[in-house]
Write a structure and sequence with these properties.
Length: about 220
Amino acid sequence: MPSSRITVLVADDHAVVRDGLVAILESSPDITVVGTAASGRQAIERILALRPQVAILDVSMPELDGITVTRQILAARPNTAVVILSMHSSAQHVMQALEAGARSYLLKENAGREIAETVRLVHLGRRHLSGRIAEIVAESISNRRGASPIDTLSHRERQILKLVCDGRSSAEIGRILGLSPKTVDTYRSRLMQKLQVADLAGLIKFAILHGLTPLE
C-alpha cells in the first residue's frame, strides 16, 4: 500500500451505506479503507488498532453514538481527523459534533458526492460542512441579536483565533505572524478570557458562530 494514500476507517451500522462509502473511497487513487465497523464500540476498538488518519462515523450507532466515539478517539488519538455522518441538519447537532472535535459534518444524502473530497480536506487539517449545513449555521449566525463579543477582539486576536481554529500550533502561528510561541500563547489565553471559554472547543464554536472560520 503506497504510503501517500490517506488511510480511512468507515463506521456505520447500515451495511448498504457502509459498503457504498467504502466503494466510493476505494475508487479514489489517493485513499484506502483500512477497516470498517458496525457499532460505536467496535469503531473505537478498530480505530485504536488500525490507526487510520481519517475516521468516518455515523452519528447514530449501536452501543455508542458517533459523538461519544469522537470524544473518546480524540482523547487517545488527537491527530485522527473525524468526519461525522448524519441525517440530522440542525445547528445544534452540528455544534455538538464540532465541539466533540469532528472536523466535518456531512448529511448522508450528500455523502456519496462529497465524501472523497471531504477526506482530503480534513486530512489536510481543514474543516468541511455540507453545503446545506453551512447555510443552516450561517442563518443561525445572521439571526443572532445584540452586541457581539467579536467587537472586543483586535485584528491580531482575530488572526490568531482563526489560525488556532485551523488547527495550527503556537509555533506555526508564530512563524506565520512573526511572533514568538510564548506571545501566541499569551494571545490565546487572553482570547479565552475575553470570550469566556475554557478550551479549544469553545474557541472553535465561537469562531464558527461568528463567521471567523470557513464553513467549507
